[in-house]
Every structure is written in structure tokens, then in C-alpha cells.
């Protein structure tokens, strides 16, 4: 604890000494010079250590030498506080590179790297060998030679509530394994349905390793099955190996058994802001990589297996290592990344390695970033430091890229990227500064600014299952604003995101390998009259961003090429996408029609007037993506020269016929400009015009009519290429979903269809439609049906062949109604939704039945209590030396982390016997210092509680954040002050034997204990709820910041009396300390390292007991909507309720609503699903059944579900008195409404 307080002194002590010198001598010039010299020396030493190249030649990763023995660890110095398990870590160091799944020849060959320093070149991706499968340049990635975006959403498989994780017997159950796979499948299909083609999977070390030396990859932890499923569904994977997962997970994702070992420096942090290499930690990292990498090696995209090509396209090592300290000095050690990259390569990872160590824009465009770049350049020139180590790709974290647009030149300047794409490993929905950028806006900005790969954390609901969340995520609702909730229901932002991704991927082939057109471009004269420039009259330059494919041609098998000629028509390779952001200008400028000016390739200049003009409006989102130079057909194609009509989907019916989906004119108006005199029929008008700079050519000017309808455009060429344009209403756009073939493993080997089509099936009508390229259609949430109307809800599918339904509620319609908008279309198929939605529309009707309503109360006496010594106790045993200022605080020698009690709640008990001669004051006070929420009972009377928690509002990792953390106790991140003590006046409830009068201490007669020679027994019970461990992020050494009860001491009595020997007391002047010597505290909880899932416990030892339950007849049940009001007596401790949810055919998600001034935990089938914290008027919703994220099929439950609720009263300590307010009400009700 002393180190935590002194961490800030690393920088402040030198400054304080300098200030003192100024005061004494007033020689400011000398002081400033000395201070400057000191800072330069420290900075140089820091940089020398940071940039050291191969300084740790004996680091962990070893192969056996020729004699067959492993080299010994050459480090003779042990870490401070090395314990008896140091030998175990030495063994890991010696044997960390034992692989049973890798050929010995491969291991010995890769071991050649160990004899030399690890350099960028030594771990570089071998594009010459694997370029045919995977390559990249500054524009994009190429998979099998095809340009590909990597559009990912984070998929945290360990957050999914699966009851198969809680029982060892169930892990081998085939049925349970199938349920796990089906839950994963539903989520991955929904991710695909939004438009993502990839997921970023963060492999959670602590989830797989509950205790030291034990690893579990079965059931809900089966990584091999998860990656196999991704391959089957055609989903790419960014594999984030860690070991650090992120700051949204308590402990950063490190296992609790590793956090317990205080002699190991997590992330090599000795103090906050200061790192020192630790071989023990490096050995533990090697142990984790030994376990997780063999699960990934066989699934890389550069390899092929029985399912085709693998799915892992990038491998991320570590996360957020780029934190900087004072004066922006780098904190990370170069050897951290070197070690992890070397371990990955030696364990035969062949895909590109990526880090995520930078933050946009501060690490790229700020003055400090540019200054340190020049400093590094000079230091390398004078050979003070070596070359900076970099992985193949340098990813970064970005938030609001609308206000701070990405610049590929700035990124390349800092990352020294040699012809590599921009990758945002974490592209957040910005919540800082109140900007509130939506996910849909971030996606559109990312595509327009040239990001080749990105992942969206938090797009899919961060499930509240278990104790995974960090303190910041637990207490801040703003960071849980997911586009799709854990119940699988889509928000408006999710629907818009789906529409944006559909529009972008409809023309993926012509926009992926593109460059930003920022100046007058030069191009080869094309065969067709292609557009080469676009501008919009009246909009500022920053509101219009044009991206153009620069003469794209088929890539050779060896990888991308920068120059060369194409064998195809060059005009086909000038695809242009114009992104318009109407939010960057005034509303009046974008409310009306906009004039789009297009310049043809034959135009001599990009004049202000252009070659021709079209008009159009922006849709409801005030943005737009407009395409030019689109071709349909083969030898004599139909060419769309330009369009101001957004095309949201594109389906190929055959080689010369496509269907485009657009909005009707009342939603987004625009025109389409085709080359040649086309035949136009249906819901549109056509004009034939001439265009300047295209002499001798005719063009068709197509103007859609108002309202929904179908337009057909047939080319004038001999090929008779044809396009159908479906104009659909807003309801169809809100539910539009497409299936993509751009990376579909089922077709990649055998497909001979035109590669220009990015979508194979399109459907609309319900939010949760799931499509697969084999022509099957299903629903993730059958009852999400559209709004209740008089007409029967239907799903419409655009496909070249009859789709097959995988859902029992989708009934195909043999023939479209003659009055339907698209009647007579042979490529539009209709399915009626037969589910009975009447029960779900009202929100609370026809819910499932409950039975077996039971209750019980926790008995403190049946708990297993263990003595919790204070620092004073240890000093008397001559085990430690305690600083004098610690002696009076009654601080405990161990906190909850040290003894493995890392669940949410930890229980404490103090028993003390008092006689009249012990009383020294009219008031008896109990002072407690706890993290984070404390509830106190004294002799069976609830004294309420207090909360010590502080969430910094300043920028993460800044000096202001450190200052805020030191100013207020209970910091969510960084060092935590010792203060935060609250005082409870317990005078009225304390028991004192043989009281001569009531003047000294008032006492309640009912609570008096029997008089005896030892005094009246008093019992104090304290429950401390932790919001989560520190995350060890941004250079803060906070994973071991104490949790639970930190200090406790009494005022008002002294146990030194005539029956005690005064020689036992070392110091009579400290009453506080003497009071502790006869006051013993005990601790009780759950050692999570002994659980199969260390994140699935509330900390109560009796939470799984089956005894002590009785019928809860006093709670009335209202069966119409199932609700009850539980009256909780705050003095009775912890209350438990349980019941069964009977099987039901109801397909709607089912929630439990909790409201009331209590702390409550909810278990569903043995898994913690939600925590409700006391509030005077707030409520919490718990998803009990259904939803795409549930374990069981969303089409109803065939088995009963077990529900357990734990509750105890809590309020601020001034809200409850000893004589009033002893009962609180907790309302429980079932509902189908997610906004109840």
C-alpha cells in the first residue's frame, strides 16, 4: 500500500527538491539548469531502456539445445517479494517452449531467431510465400487476389451466458455443446446480416485459466469449435491474443491467480508510470501463448483445411501498449512487443501481426508526437538507440474521426508503414465530450477516409453476465450504448449501420482498392465515357470526399502490384464512390436538392461546370454514397455513368441482369445517368441527351416516379444487359438485409459467376432476417416482427432462385398478390410470418407461468470465517516492519485480492465483548474504509452503508486523470488514495454487560446481551461490494489496488482493563492501536480460483446451497403479468428468492424488471445475468429467456428455467435510522417490453 501512495512521488520529489533549493538560495538560474540536466538524464535513461534492442537475450522463449537440455535463466536477481512459487515460474521459464503439436524440425528452425536480437525483419509476414492467399498494400487487403475490406465487430464469446460453463459434467454433454454452437451461430449470422464480414475475438486468459496450471477449452470455451464455425459461415477473424484484453474487463483479462502473485509485475509495471522488466511475468505470458496459439494455427487464412481456407486474417499481440508518461515519455518497453511477436512466430503463426499501441489523433498529429519523432531520429543518428521495432501492421484506436479525419500520410509518418493499409483495431462510438457520434456515422466516415480494416467495440451488446466488466463499465451506462442489445433487438443506429454497410458492400469491388482524389487526377483515356471527377455546388470541400479506384486490375498470384497494364477495358477500372456528409454544413444547405457536377475522362480540365449535372437529395441520415462508372454485363455491358440515387443493395440474377434496391423518391430523390439509348419501362421516365466532351454519344437520363415501384433499364448494346431498380419505402430500408459473396468460402473455390456482384440475396420485412448464400432464409428473433398492423407481416426476398426457409414461422407464398407493388416479378419471393404476435405487442400479456416460489435468509453462523490480521498483528509477530503512520489506521495485512476473494462481494465479521470498564467515551464509533460499496449490520441492525467510488472525467492517461485520482478516493483507474473512511455511530445498538447507568452509553434493552465474566458479545457484519479490479491500462499499476475492507477501527472503548496485562501493549499513547489488539476481524467469501468459471460468483459461500428454502407464501403473485412486491427487512441480512419459469412457446424475449432500494443479483440457470444496485427510483431489466444472445433456441423454451434473486437493503448511511424505515420494497415483474 505504501508503494501506491508513493507512486506519484516518482516525478514530484525531484520537483519539490528543486523548489526547496530556490527558496533557500534564490539562485534560480542554477536550479533551472540542474533541473533541466536531471530531466535530460532521466529522459535519456528512460529512452535508452525503452528502445533497447534485444537486451533480454534470455527471455523465456527457448528451444532445447543440441544436448537436449533447456538453457538456464541467466537472470540472478529475483523480484522483490519473491515467494515460494518462484521455482514454479523458473520451471516455466526453462520449459516454456514445449509444443506437442508442432514438428520438432519447425521448432528448431524457428529457434535460430533466439540467438540474435528480434528485429522488424525477423518477424515480418512472408508475403512472398503467402501472398497468393493474403497480401496487402496501402489501399486494402487482398484475399486470394481479391481486394477486401475487413469490417469487424467485437465478438466476446466469453460474455455469452451459457450454463454449460458452470458444471464439469455438462461440459462433456454433446447436447450442451450443440447449444453453445447454436448460440454462437445465431450471433455470427446476425453480425453478418448487419454487413460485417469479420469479427475481432479477444481471447480472455482469465476465462480459460481459473487457477494456475489449469486451462479449459471445452464447452463455451472451445476456441477450435468457434473458429471452425467462423470458417463455415465465411466470417473473417482478427485474433486478439492479449494477454491484455482491454480496459473494459476487470484485471485487464489477466487471470486472478496471476494478479494474486504480488511479486509478479503485471505488464512489467513496477509503479504507475514506470516499467521494469520481469522475467516471471514474461514466463506467464509464454504459458498463455503455449495454450492459445495451437488453437489458432490451423485456422489461419493463409492455410487450407477440410473446410477450405482458414478464417484468421490478422493476429493482434497485446493491446494499448502505447501509453506515455510525464513529458510524453514512452512507457512501454520495446522488448514487450518483441517478445510477444517472437513467441507468436515461433509457435508458427504465419498471418500478419498487428499491434494497437496508438491513439488517433494525439499520437499522430500532436506537437508531442511530431517532436518525439524528431528526437528519435536524432538519437538513432547518433546510435544512442537502435531501430524501433514494429510488427507488420501498426493499428490504432480512434473515436471521433468526423471532427479529426484520418490522414494516411500522418499515419504512415508515425508508424513508418511501408505500403501498408490503415487499420483501426478499435473504432469506438464516441462518447467523450458529448459529441455522441453514432456507429453508423463512424462506419461511413471510416470508409470515406480510407480505413482498410476496423473493428467496432460495443456494437453488439456487452452482456452483463458474470463479473467480467471493469469498474468503469459497471458504473457508467454511457459505454453500454450498444447498437444491438444482448437480446438481439436492433436500435435505430443499428438499422442505419446495416443500410450503410449494405450500400458500401454492394459496390465493394470498385471501392475497396481506391484512393482519395484530392487533386486533379491523371488517368489513361478509357474506352467508355467514364467519370473522373465529382463536385457538389454549394457544399464545402470537407463535406465531399471522392474515392476512386486507380486502374484496378487482376492481381498476380504473388501479391499486389503497383504498376502494370490491364487486359480489361480500362473504363471498368475507374470506379468512383462519392461520400457526402451533410452534417458538416448548415441544415438549409442540405434540405433541398443538391447539384452534382460530373467531369468525364475526356474533359480537358475539372472545371466548375463539369461535363454534366444531376440533382439529388440526401436521405434522412443527411449523408449519402453515390457511385459512378458501374458496369452490368459482359462483352457489351450496360454502363451507369453516374447516379445521384443511392443504391443500397445489388443482386446479380445472371451474367447480364441485376436488381438494384433504392429508396422511393419521397425518402431520397435522385437520377440515374446511363450510357447509350436505353429502354426504360416501369416506374420512371427517361430522356435522351447529349453531353459535352462525349461527342457522338447518347445518354439516358432516368428519373424515377414518386412512390414505390419497379423500373427496368435495358441497354442498347447487343448483349441486352438489364437492370431492375426496386424503389422501396422506408419500412423496407429499415429492415433491409443482404448476404455477401465477396468472402463466401462455399463459393470461393467453385464459383464462376461475375465477381463484380457483392450480394447474392437481399430481403426485407423483419429486423432479424438471417440469410445464407446457399439460398436459405431464417430469423434470429421470430417475434421481433414488425409493428402490429392489420395486414399480415411478410418478408420479401430478392433472389435468382426460390429461397428455402429454415424457420417454421416463415411460410412461402406461391404467388404475389396482384395488388402488390412487385407483383409479377419472377425474382421477388414472399414469405408470410405466421407467428402470433398479438401476445407480444402489448408487452405484458400471455407471459410464461412460474412455480415453486421459495425464499431463505443467509445465516452468518454457518459461514466459514477466517481470521484477517491487521498490520499491527503482523508487527507483534515480527513478520513485517510497519511504518509508524500505518499503526494507527487499523489496516488489514491482506486485502480481498490476496486471499483470492475476487468475486463481487466479500463478507467481514467482527466480534467483541464489552464491559463497562472498557467504555472511554459517550459515543462508540466504527470507522470503515472500503472499496467500493459497504453495507453494515451491528447486532442484527442494519446501519445502512456508504460508497467510495470516483470515476475520473478527464482524459484517460493524462496528468489531470492522475491528479483527479489522487484527489478523490475510490478512483476507477490509477492509484487510489487511502482516504475514504466513513464513520458509523453504533452507540445505540452496542451491547455492554452489567451497565451501572445509562448516562455514559444509551442502550436498547431488547438488544442487551447476557451479563457474564467476559462481557456482552457484539457482532458486526460488513458486506463490501467491489465494482471490479483495476485494469492495468494506460501505464497505471492498479490491478492490485485493494478491494474489500481496507481498514477498520473503533472509537469509544478500550479493551485494556484490569484483567489484561499492560505489557502486551507497545505504545500506550495510541488508543486507536490498542483498541485493535483485542478486536479481531474475520473474512469470508468465495475463492474464485477454485471455481470452473471464476467470473460467475457473487461472493456468498451459500449462493449454491439447496438447503434452507421454504415456500414464500407471503408474496402475492399477480398472474396476468406476473409481478410481486417483496418486503425486505433490512435488519435480516441477505434475502434469497427462487422460482421456476415453466416451458413456454412464447418466442418474445422475456425480461425480469427489478426496482427498489436494494442491491440485487439475478442468476438464470446458475449464471449471474444482472446486478441491480440500489436507487430511489431506478429499475433494471434482466434478460431471462429468448433473444439472439440466449443459450436456448429463440423459437420457444422446451425446458424450465431456474431463477434465483439475491437481495439485501442498501442506502446511503444517512437514509436509514435505527427506529424507522426497516422495511423496503423490491418490485419484481416479468415483461416482454425492453423499455419497461
What is the tally of beta strands? 58
Helix content: 10-25%
CA gyration radius, whole angstroms: 34 Å
Please indicate the percent range of residues in DSSP E strands (runs of 2 or more): 25-35%
Poorly predicted ranges: 1-11, 53-115, 552-568, 742-755, 785-790, 837-846, 877-889, 997-1010, 1057-1077
- Average pLDDT figure: 76
By DSSP (H or I, 4+ residues per run), the number of helices equals 27
Ends apart, CA distance between termini? 45 Å
> Structural class from helices and strands?
alpha+beta
Quick one: biggest sheet?
A: 8 strands, parallel, barrel
Can you tell me the overall shape?
Answer: globular
The largest beta-sheet arranges its strands as 4-5-6-11-12-13-14-15
GO biological process, one term: carbohydrate metabolic process
GO molecular function: hydrolase activity, hydrolyzing O-glycosyl compounds
Region (Disordered): 65-85
Transmembrane segments: 28-44
Could you explain the architecture of this structure?
By secondary structure, this protein is of the alpha+beta class. It is 20% helix and 26% strand. α2 runs antiparallel to α3, α4 crosses α12 and α16 (439-448) packs parallel to α18. The chain is globular, with a radius of gyration of 34 Å. The N terminus is likely disordered.
Q: What topology emerges from the helices and strands here?
A:
Blueprint: H1 2-6, H2 9-25, H3 28-50, H4 86-95, H5 104-110, H6 127-130, E1 134-136, E2 141-143, E3 146-148, E4 150-154, H7 168-171, H8 174-194, E5 198-202, H9 205-208, H10 223-233, E6 236-242, H11 256-260, E7 269-271, E8 274-275, H12 279-297, E9 304-305, E10 308-309, E11 312-317, H13 334-346, E12 353-359, H14 367-381, E13 393-398, H15 408-415, E14 423-427, H16 439-448, E15 453-456, H17 471-475, H18 492-506, H19 508-511, E16 514-516, E17 531-537, E18 544-549, E19 576-581, H20 587-591, E20 594-600, E21 612-616, E22 623-632, E23 638-643, E24 649-654, E25 657-663, E26 672-675, E27 679-682, E28 684-689, E29 699-704, E30 709-714, E31 722-728, H21 730-734, E32 737-740, H22 745-748, E33 759-764, E34 769-771, E35 776-779, E36 794-798, E37 804-805, E38 810-813, E39 828-833, H23 838-841, E40 850-857, E41 866-868, H24 871-876, H25 884-887, E42 905-914, E43 925-931, E44 933-938, E45 941-947, H26 959-967, E46 982-985, E47 1016-1025, E48 1044-1051, H27 1071-1077, E49 1080-1084, E50 1110-1111, E51 1123-1129, E52 1135-1141, E53 1150-1156, ...
Parallel strand pairs: 4-5, 4-15, 5-6, 6-11, 11-12, 12-13, 13-14, 14-15, 25-31, 35-37
Antiparallel strand pairs: 1-2, 2-3, 7-8, 9-10, 16-18, 17-20, 18-19, 19-22, 20-21, 22-23, 23-26, 24-25, 26-29, 27-30, 28-29, 30-31, 32-33, 33-36, 34-35, 36-39, 38-39, 40-50, 40-52, 41-49, 42-47, 42-49, 43-46, 43-48, 44-45, 44-47, 51-58, 52-57, 53-56, 53-58, 54-55, 54-57
Amino acid at each position: 500500500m505504501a508503494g501506491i501512495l508513493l507512486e506519484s512521488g516518482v516525478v514530484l520529489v525531484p520537483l519539490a527538491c528543486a523548489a526547496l533549493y530556490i527558496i533557500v538560495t534564490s539562485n534560480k538560474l542554477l536550479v533551472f539548469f540542474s533541473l533541466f540536466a536531471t530531466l535530460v538524464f532521466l529522459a535519456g535513461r528512460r529512452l535508452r531502456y525503452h528502445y533497447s534492442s534485444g537486451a533480454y537475450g534470455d527471455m523465456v522463449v527457448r528451444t532445447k539445445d543440441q544436448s537436449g537440455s533447456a538453457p538456464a535463466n541467466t537472470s540472478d536477481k529475483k523480484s522483490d517479494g519473491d515467494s515460494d512459487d518462484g521455482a514454479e515460474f523458473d520451471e516455466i521459464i526453462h520449459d516454456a517452449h514445449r509444443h506437442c503439436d508442432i514438428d520438432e524440425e519447425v521448432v528448431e528452425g524457428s529457434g535460430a531467431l533466439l540467438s540474435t536480437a528480434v528485429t522488424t525483419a525477423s518477424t515480418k509476414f512472408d508475403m512472398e510465400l503467402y501472398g497468393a492467399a493474403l497480401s496487402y498494400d496501402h489501399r486494402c487487403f487482398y484475399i486470394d487476389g481479391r481486394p477486401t475490406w475487413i469490417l469487424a465487430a467485437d465478438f466476446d464469446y466469453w460474455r455469452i451466458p451459457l450454463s454449460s460453463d458452470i458444471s464439469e459434467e455438462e461440459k462433456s454433454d454433446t447436447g450442451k455443446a450443440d447449444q453453445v454452437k447454436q448460440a454462437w451461430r445465431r450471433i455470427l449470422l446476425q453480425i453478418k446480416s448487419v454487413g460485417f464480414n469479420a469479427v475481432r475475438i479477444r481471447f480472455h486468459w482469465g476465462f480459460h485459466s481459473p487457477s494456475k496450471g489449469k486451462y479449459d477449452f471445452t464447452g463455451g470455451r472451445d476456441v477450435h469449435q468457434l473458429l471452425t464455425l467462423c470458417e463455415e459461415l465465411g466470417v473473417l477473424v482478427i485474433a486478439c491474443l492479449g494477454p491484455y484484453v482491454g480496459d473494459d474487463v476487470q484485471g485487464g483479462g489477466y487471470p486472478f491467480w496471476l494478479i494474486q502473485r504480488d511479486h509478479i509485475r503485471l505488464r512489467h509495471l513496477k509503479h504507475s508510470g514506470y516499467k521494469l522488466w520481469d522475467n516471471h511475468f514474461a514466463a506467464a505470458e509464454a504459458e498463455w501463448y503455449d495454450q492459445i496459439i495451437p488453437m489458432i494455427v490451423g485456422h489461419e487464412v493463409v492455410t487450407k483445411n477440410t473446410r477450405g481456407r482458414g478464417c484468421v486474417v490478422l493476429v493482434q499481440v497485446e493491446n494499448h501498449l502505447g501509453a506515455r508518461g510525464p513529458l510524453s515519455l514512452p512507457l512501454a518497453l520495446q522488448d514487450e512487443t518483441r517478445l510477444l511477436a517472437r513467441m507468436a512466430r515461433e509457435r508458427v503463426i504465419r498471418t500478419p501481426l498487428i499491434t494497437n499501441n496508438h491513439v488517433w489523433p494525439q499520437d499522430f498529429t500532436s506537437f508531442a508526437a511530431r517532436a518525439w519523432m524528431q528526437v528519435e531520429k536524432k538519437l538513432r543518428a547518433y546510435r544512442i538507440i537502435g531501430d524501433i521495432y514494429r510488427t507488420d501492421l501498426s493499428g490504432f484506436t480512434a473515436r471521433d474521426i468526423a471532427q479529426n479525419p484520418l490522414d494516411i500520410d500522418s499515419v504512415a509518418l508515425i508508424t513508418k508503414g511501408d505500403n501498408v493499409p490503415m487499420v483501426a483495431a478499435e473504432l469506438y462510438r464516441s462518447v467523450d465530450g458529448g459529441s455522441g457520434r453514432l456507429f453508423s456515422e463512424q462506419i461511413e466516415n471510416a470508409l470515406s477516409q480510407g480505413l482498410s480494416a476496423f473493428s467496432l467495440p460495443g456494437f453488439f451488446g456487452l452482456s452483463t453476465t458474470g463479473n467480467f466488466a471493469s469498474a468503469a463499465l459497471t458504473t457508467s451506462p454511457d459505454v453500454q450504448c450498444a447498437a444491438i442489445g444482448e437480446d438481439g433487438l436492433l436500435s435505430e443506429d443499428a438499422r442505419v449501420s446495416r443500410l450503410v454497410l449494405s450500400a458500401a458492400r454492394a459496390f465493394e469491388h470498385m471501392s475497396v482498392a481506391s484512393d482519395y482524389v484530392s487533386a486533379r487526377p491523371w488517368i489513361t483515356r478509357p474506352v467508355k465515357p467514364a467519370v473522373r471527377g465529382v463536385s457538389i455546388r454549394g457544399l464545402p470541400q470537407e463535406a465531399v470526399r471522392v474515392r476512386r479506384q486507380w486502374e484496378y486490375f487482376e492481381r498476380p498470384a504473388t501479391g499486389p502490384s503497383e504498376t502494370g497494364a490491364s487486359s480489361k477495358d480500362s473504363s471498368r477500372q475507374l470506379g468512383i464512390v462519392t461520400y457526402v456528409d451533410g452534417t458538416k454544413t448548415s441544415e438549409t444547405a442540405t434540405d433541398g436538392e443538391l447539384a452534382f457536377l460530373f467531369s468525364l475522362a475526356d474533359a480537358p480540365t475539372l472545371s466548375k461546370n463539369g461535363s454534366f449535372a444531376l440533382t439529388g437529395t440526401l436521405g434522412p441520415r443527411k449523408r449519402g454514397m453515390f457511385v459512378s462508372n458501374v458496369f452490368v454485363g459482359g462483352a457489351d455491358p450496360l454502363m451507369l455513368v453516374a447516379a445521384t440515387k443511392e443504391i443500397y443493395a445489388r443482386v446479380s440474377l445472371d451474367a447480364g441482369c441485376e436488381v438494384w434496391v433504392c429508396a422511393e423518391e419521397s425518402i431520397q430523390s435522385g437520377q440515374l445517368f446511363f450510357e447509350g439509348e436505353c429502354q426504360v419501362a416501369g416506374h420512371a421516365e427517361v430522356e435522351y441527351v447529349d453531353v459535352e466532351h462525349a461527342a457522338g454519344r447518347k445518354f439516358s437520363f432516368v428519373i424515377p416516379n414518386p412512390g414505390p415501384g419497379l423500373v427496368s433499364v435495358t441497354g442498347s448494346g447487343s448483349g441486352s444487359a438489364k437492370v431492375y431498380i426496386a424503389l422501396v419505402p422506408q419500412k423496407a430500408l429499415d429492415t433491409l438485409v443482404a448476404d455477401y459473396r465477396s468472402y463466401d468460402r462455399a463459393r470461393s473455390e467453385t464459383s464462376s459467376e461475375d465477381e463484380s456482384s457483392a450480394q447474392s440475396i437481399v430481403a426485407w420485412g423483419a429486423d432479424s432476417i438471417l440469410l445464407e448464400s446457399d439460398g436459405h432464409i431464417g430469423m434470429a428473433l421470430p417475434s421481433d416482427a414488425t409493428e402490429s398492423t392489420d395486414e399480415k407481416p411478410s418478408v420479401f426476398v430478392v433472389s435468382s432462385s426460390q429461397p428455402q426457409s429454415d424457420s417454421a414461422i416463415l411460410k412461402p407464398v406461391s404467388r404475389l398478390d396482384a395488388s402488390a407493388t412487385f407483383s409479377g416479378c419472377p425474382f421477388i419471393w414472399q414469405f408470410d410470418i405466421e407467428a402470433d404476435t398479438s401476445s407480444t405487442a402489448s408487452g405484458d400479456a400471455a407471459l410464461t407461468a412460474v412455480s415453486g416460489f421459495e425464499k431463505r435468509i443467509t445465516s452468518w453462523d454457518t459461514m466459514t470465517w477466517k481470521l484477517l490480521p491487521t498490520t499491527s498483528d503482523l508487527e507483534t509477530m515480527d513478520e513485517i516492519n510497519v511504518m509508524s503512520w500505518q499503526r494507527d489506521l487499523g489496516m488489514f495485512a491482506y486485502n480481498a485480492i490476496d486471499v483470492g476473494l475476487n468475486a463481487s462481494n466479500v463478507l467481514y465479521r467482527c466480534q467483541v465483548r464489552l464491559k463497562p470498564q472498557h467504555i472511554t467515551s459517550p459515543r462508540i464509533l466504527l470507522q470503515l474504509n472500503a472499496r467500493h460499496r459497504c453495507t453494515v449490520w451491528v447486532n442484527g441492525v442494519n446501519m445502512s452503508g456508504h460508497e467510495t467510488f470516483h470515476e475520473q472525467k478527464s482524459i484517460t492517461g493524462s496528468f489531470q486523470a492522475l491528479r483527479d485520482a489522487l484527489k478523490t478516493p475510490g478512483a476507477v483507474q490509477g492509484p487510489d488514495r487511502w482516504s475514504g473512511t466513513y464513520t458509523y455511530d453504533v452507540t445505540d445498538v452496542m451491547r455492554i454487560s452489567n451497565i451501572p447507568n445509562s448516562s455514559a452509553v444509551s442502550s436498547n434493552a431488547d438488544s442487551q446481551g447476557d451479563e457474564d465474566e467476559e462481557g456482552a458479545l457484539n457482532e458486526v457484519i460488513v458486506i463490501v461490494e467491489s465494482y471490479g479490479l483495476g485494469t492495468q491500462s494506460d501505464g497505471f499499476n492498479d490491478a492490485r489496488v485493494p478491494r474489500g475492507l481496507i481498514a477498520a477501527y473503533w472509537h469509544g472503548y478500550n479493551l485494556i482493563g484490569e484483567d489484561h496485562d499492560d505489557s502486551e501493549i507497545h505504545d500506550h499513547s495510541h488508543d486507536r492501536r490498542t483498541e485493535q489488539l483485542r478486536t479481531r476481524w474475520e473474512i469470508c467469501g468465495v475463492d474464485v480460483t477454485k471455481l470452473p468459471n471464476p467470473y460467475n460468483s457473487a461472493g456468498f459461500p451459500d449462493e449454491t446451497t439447496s438447503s434452507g428454502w421454504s415456500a414464500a407464501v407471503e408474496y402475492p403473485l399477480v398472474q396476468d403479468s406476473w409481478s410481486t412486491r417483496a418486503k425486505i427487512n433490512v435488519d435480516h441480512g441477505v434475502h434469497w428468492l427462487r422460482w421456476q419459469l415453466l416451458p413456454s412457446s412464447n418466442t418474445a424475449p422475456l425480461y425480469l424488471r427489478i426496482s427498489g432500494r436494494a442491491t440485487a443479483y439475478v442468476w438464470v440457470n446458475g449464471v449471474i445475468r444482472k446486478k441491480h444496485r440500489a436507487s430511489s427510483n431506478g429499475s433494471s431489466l434482466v434478460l431471462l429467456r429468448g433473444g439472439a444472445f440466449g443459450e436456448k433456441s429463440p423459437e420457444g423454451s422446451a425446458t424450465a428455467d431456474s431463477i434465483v434473486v439475491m437481495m439485501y437493503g442498501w442506502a446511503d448511511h444517512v437514509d436509514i435510522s435505527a427506529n424507522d424505515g426497516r422495511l423496503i420494497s423490491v418490485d419484481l415483474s416479468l415483461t416482454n417490453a425492453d423499455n419497461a
